[in-house]
Design goal:
CATH superfamily of the largest domain in chain B: FAD/NAD(P)-binding domain
Number of helices of chain B: 8
Radius of gyration of chain B: 22 Å
CATH topology of the largest domain in chain A: FAD/NAD(P)-binding domain
Distance between the termini of chain A: 16 Å
InterPro entries (chain B): FAD/NAD-bd_sf, FAD/NAD-binding_dom, Metab_Enz_Cyan_OpOx_G3PDH
Protein name (chain B): Oxidoreductase
Number of domains of chain A: 3
Domain FAD/NAD(P)-binding (chain B): 12-306
CATH superfamily of the largest domain in chain A: FAD/NAD(P)-binding domain
Strand content of chain A: 15-25%
Oligomer: heterodimer
Bound molecules: flavin-adenine dinucleotide
GO molecular function, one term (chain B): oxidoreductase activity
Pfam families (chain B): Pyr_redox_2
Largest sheet of chain A: 9 strands, mixed
Chain lengths: 475, 417
Amino acid sequence: MTVTTTGDLPGEVYDVAIIGAGVVGTAIARELARHRLRIALVEASDDVGNGTSKANTAIVHTGFDATPGTLEARLVREGYQRLTAYAAETGIPLEPLGALLVAWDAEQLAALPSLAEKAVRNGYDETSILDADAVYAREPHLGPGALGALEVPGESIICPWTTTLAYATQAVRAGVALHLNCPAGAVTTGEDHHEIATPRGVLRTRHLVNAAGLYSDEINRRLGHEEFTVTPRRGQLIVFDKFARGLVDHILLPVPTALGKGVLVAPTVYGNVMLGPTAEDLGDKTATGSSADGLASLREKGARIMPELLAEEVTAVYAGLRAATEHGDYQIHADPGRRYVAVGGIRSTGLTASMAIAAHVAELLTDCGLDPGPEREIEPVRMPTIGEAFPRPYQRADLIATDPAYGTVVCHCERVTRGEIRDALTATVPPGSLDGLRRRTRALGGRCQGFFCGAAVRAQFDAATAAQDRTEARR
Amino acid sequence: MTPTDRTHRTVDALVIGAGPAGLALAARLAAAGVDRVEVLDREQYAGGIPRHCHHTGFGLRDLRRLMTGPDYARHHIAAAIRAGAVLRTSVTATGWAAPRTVDITSPTGLERITATAVVLATGARERPRSARLVPGTRPAGVLTTGQLQQAVHLHHQHVGRRAVIVGAERVGYSAVATLHRAGAEVAAMVTDQPRHQTHPARHLGTRLRYGFPLVTDATVAELTGQGRLESVRLRHRDGRTADVACDTVVFTGDWIPDHELARSAGIALDPGTRGPAADAEFRTGEPGVFAVGNLLHPVETADIAALDGRLAAGPVLRHLAGRPWTPGALPVRVEAPLLWVSPNRIAPDGPRPPRGRFTLRTTRFLTRPVLTVAQDGRTLHRGRLPRTVAPGRPFHMPADWIARADAHGGPVRITAD
Ligand SMILES: Cc1cc2nc3c(=O)[nH]c(=O)nc-3n(C[C@H](O)[C@H](O)[C@H](O)COP(=O)(O)OP(=O)(O)OC[C@H]3O[C@@H](n4cnc5c(N)ncnc54)[C@H](O)[C@@H]3O)c2cc1C
Ligand SMILES: Cc1cc2nc3c(=O)[nH]c(=O)nc-3n(C[C@H](O)[C@H](O)[C@H](O)COP(=O)(O)OP(=O)(O)OC[C@H]3O[C@@H](n4cnc5c(N)ncnc54)[C@H](O)[C@@H]3O)c2cc1C
């Protein structure tokens, strides 16, 4: 098992290198790991899932409202099936709550039948149209004025952090070399292999996959391609306290307009309620901050959808950047001559589609001359339970009996135990920062944001990191 | 063993939270001869917030001497144990199985405890940056005073070099001292009020000793920095903005009770304090469940919380002796700019609140305000306060009007003008 964070890259020539360890890059690594290949996954930051993949609305879409016939429509539909099955197998928190597309005016109400038809064209025929009474029977805390809704029972909520981590963990255990803190720079393409400059030395690989998210257009240009330009589209979100969870039991979507999917209200698998996202086109690929205007507009919209929500405390505010392009579809292109596949423009559905994108990319690589060899079974993974739908360690007498650390609650708001933090710190893909630890365990992610546990969690993190440094120094 | 096996026990009084309030109450109950008084705390060490307040200023009102927070905590721990209370740490109350039956997680397993009296003494905390909806990036270096004090005093961790403190009530001044102790400089203290809200002597003393600018009438408009905090953008009331370079920001004050257990029991909260609505005898709306300390008044000093604990012993003992549960049902509410009043339920024919007075807070400075207490349009009390009241500091109002309220009328409202 190889995860490196410092030092020179190995001199070997990989069969495939994947740039970018977001949900898409890790899914591709996992998919390819099902063959005996030498694979490198290189990531600029200190953790997997540290880009767009950590900051989305965490919904597994059925694909009911995709544009029929597009690559995105197909991969979302397939990805939905694959990810739902994978989540059940690995313990990724997933709850099939179903969505309601709520119509607030006559025009939106009139649009519902055509949305139902579109769903059918996308291969999804389980929608139904509800009248106002039925809507309020399902969601009694909805604000006044809802006229009806399209019910989409298959839409689900998921833990995006565990998803990426599960892919990465399984890939690394199956032999993929994960190199963190390793931004890919200039690319020189030779007859036999690519040479990619990184601050940690040259990465050599026969085949190259570009899954660099917001930066996929820049890498693409380095390979001489100009198919797309990424324009970051910011989505800001507000996460409300767990006490809001009782207010809402579906994913509440607006009826889509030309401007995109719009602002939703949805539970999270951690038991919070989310409001967002905004949609703002920006010029800066690092602008993941929230803005006063953005938050004000979310609150204004939220007040209409569910007035009581606004009275609850806010746990977190964050923003993610969608990798939007000038095109209406995913930008997945193969260049067999250069043994190269670009995976760009994975805008607002990449979490759902990730496993299907991976399978698609594997096929394209074969078209590019990669001989994957026979398929093999890879070791299944079982991820820690950080969702609320199943008992967490602090609720399990059997676990605590075997190890009292699972009965020692460190982060009180999220009820994260010393044992879970220890496990995360010694896992196959350990966190590189407290933020990474939060995404693995939820520690520090609760309503007090560290007032009670911040220093204690940091102490445990620092101790584990120091111990690791000592082991590395000894080697 | 099945995953959810729980041992089940019964005690007389179960106190949740071993801060000053819970400990002082447990000591009284045990000393009064209650058989089984059990105090739980989810932290590894008992003592509550004073554990990590390494400055002096504790104990004046309840112990009539001045001590540091940790000394104060030790005093109350020892007193509770000496009196015969059972004190357990690393034990978290996680929810309710039934009224007065609490589910518990600890390193020794899962338990369920049923008590004749359950006392919630779970304290209060500061609202973090996110809850205050402060925009910007999400860098490291953003703290509350609670986290800062624990980092510096309990874990000897490095904090940044240059900090902005948001809030100028007394806890902000504690943050100044802690930052100094950690070797960090205070770039500015900022408050949205026209002046600081601590005692003038404290303000002057801290300023003379540590010398930092106090920026008034300003709010935090944005945090910037990827990875680590780089600066805080302040917006003055007149719209001007200024960036203050710093690697740390401490959000102080702006209290919220830790009301999770209370709320998950379905206990009605007071809209002002956000803690359980409770009467002059610390009774909540749930039979047999009392609440004391900062859970009721976010936030008062530790000695006031401890005095609560002492005063609550009488009502808890009467409940244990079988007195029927008839809490004051008439709500007392405040209107803006007042923030909260405690206690906030009364029985017109019942006892007066502790020390014969109500405790209140305001959201802005009020110069010798006139307070009016009215019910259904009828004035029950009207009086001018002798002093200016400040946000972040308690003030008091007499309670002798209680008997004039109509037990069957609408809520009693307190206004200030
Ligand atoms: C607000 C919002 C809401 C969303 N909601 C949903 C939803 O509900 N459901 C859903 O399915 N999808 C949703 N999405 C979309 C989903 O999050 C994305 O499609 C997905 O995360 C994209 O993954 P990625 O791996 O392509 O990109 P990223 O996660 O950004 O990964 C790319 C990685 O490449 C790395 N990288 C970049 N350049 C280099 C380099 N030169 N060298 C090395 N590494 C590099 C980056 O550091 C990054 O880690 C949402 C997105 C946003 C922003
Ligand atoms: C940062 C800060 C600085 C302060 N500085 C001063 C000062 O200088 N002087 C002063 O007089 N006062 C000060 N105070 C106020 C003082 O600390 C409080 O008034 C006092 O601690 C309140 O006592 P309490 O018993 O109500 O609550 P706390 O002291 O907050 O104790 C509550 C206890 O309940 C426990 N608990 C909560 N939930 C559970 C659960 N579910 N299961 C088990 N246990 C639980 C907690 O772990 C905690 O120990 C300060 C407060 C803060 C936050």
